[in-house]
Amino acid sequence: MKALVIHAPHDLRIEEQPVASPGPHEVAVRIAAGGICGSDLHYYHQGGFGAVRLKEPMILGHEIAGVVEAVGTAVGSLKPGDRVAVSPSRPCGGCRYCREAMFNHCLNMRFYGSAMPFPHVQGAFREVLVCDAVQAHRVADHVSLGEAACAEPLAVCLHAVNRAGGVAGRRVLVTGCGPIGALAALAARAGGAAEVVATDIAEAPIAMARRLGLDRAINTAAEPDGLKGYEAEKGTFDVLFEASGNSQALAGALAALRPGGIVVQVGTGGDFIIPISVVVAKELELRGTFRFHGEFADAVAMLGERRIDVRPLISATLPLDRAVEAFELASDRARAMKVQLAFG
Fold first, then answer.
1. Which fold, 157-288?
2. Cα separation of 320 and 342, whole Å?
3. Average pLDDT over residues 319-325
């Protein structure tokens, strides 16, 4: 089979890899669609992020969907021909955090396409993936496999909403309207938020936010005082999803957050400078959010129910042999939101 392997920054190769046979509790999935994530772009451009660096060639990718090709002898929940979205999250089930149901913090996590451990966890941008049957979730017949591949980033955002304690009836601000910010806004709206406002410093993602029907989308580069009206009486918003990974975006949004408000930091971009006096005076809560676990099944269900429609976010789908072109396109915020690869 063919697989997409990163060797070093801007050294992306299509290579032949062996195809494994599924074990008793595994399935073989012929991958149809794979979404290029921000972490994939970090590996492509910088060879990693933060302290995480490539130390050996690694197959990229973790946003994937396809068709079951073969099942193990002990698998009764799936059959060949089933269309599935595959969760890249593979906790061990036995460590202290798994025993506490904090599966996303598993000490032995095997998350596809991750250079955090060494040897690295090989990713899912390959023609055939063998995975545990419990990772494969059937998708509704009317949901395309491109949409199904968006279940992973949507699960990230559903976990962020859960970290906020829910958003029903609350006013929500999202800073950063890339794929994760846009999905966080959609997740908030689907969660019953009373109002969802989004900001960004580029016009293309703002135009997408408007297309998605959010209550308001503000280009803070063109309109620096766009959030000013929300600062009255110590602030307006109950929840902030900070998805830009930019400390200036976080600092600029705190004035619009009401006392007792909750900040969920979704984006990562290195060390932040936080105006701690504002956090103290307003009794704000800063909460991190990391990956997901049970939310993946929720994401697949919501896509099937059309409670969240990700189709507007898919900017382009390119074949595997144009992977470098796809990665360059995905890196251009002015031209693309979510770029996917088509396999086979």
1. Rossmann fold (3.40.50)
2. 6
3. 98
